[in-house]
Amino acid sequence: MRLDRFLSNLPRFNRQDVRQLLASGRVRVDDRVRRDGHDEVRVLSRVELDAEVLQAGKAARYFMLHKPPGVVSATEHPEHRTVLDLLDEPDKQELHLAGRLDLNTSGLLLLTNDGQWSRRATAPAGKQPKVYLVDTADPIDPACIEVFARGLYFRFEDLLTRPAELQILAPRQARLTLYEGRYHQVKRMFGHFQNKVVRLHRLSMGAIQLDERLCPGQYRVLTAEEIASFCPD
Ligand code: URA
After folding, report:
1. What is the pLDDT of residue 123?
2. For the whole prediction, is pTM greater than 0.70?
3. Which residues approach ligand 1 with their CB closer than 6 A?
4. I need a surface site. Which of 144, 206, 209, 212 has the fewest CB within 10 A?
């Protein structure tokens, strides 16, 4: 929310008060004086007026989880266990997922309470690579390499997929790098070649690699470097 809106939502200030408060340098957000009403106030931001705390803010939290198959990428579900069930953290309902995986897909999943960060991590314009290990029912046709690199037409969305990189590792196994995340994208790409994906595992998102020390179902806090990898320079 914009800072001027945040302030004028408080019952004691009208718009003119807000302008004066900002101009006089009495408002601080995250320890910095803010004079521009267009600046953003987040749930995580601490907002102060002189010595008074208007919003305490919250610590930003970031986790990577090794998602096992059979657990749903959601915060609630009527039938299945969710990825949140795997976390033993206070106030975990405040977390959300930065990108999803299908029920039977395993691998790297990021969770945070920082909406701005997760938008950067998943924004299509950010073109962050996502790397998957794919096992298929039938041998992989080498023609996939060129077709995936050119882009495939997805009729439902009426779009051409972004150029993707396929590296065939074994007759039925490949590493696929995507620069977007369309619904069931990997399965649909191989489906174009009538080849069923029997196992799908995400290895990385941007510069963040799934920590090999995490067994399926385990998680850890992201390092400062991993968090910064999705922040603008
Ligand atoms: N593509 C898929 O088909 N499924 C996933 O879970 C991720 C990418």
Report:
1. 83
2. yes
3. 101-102, 105, 184-187, 200
4. 212
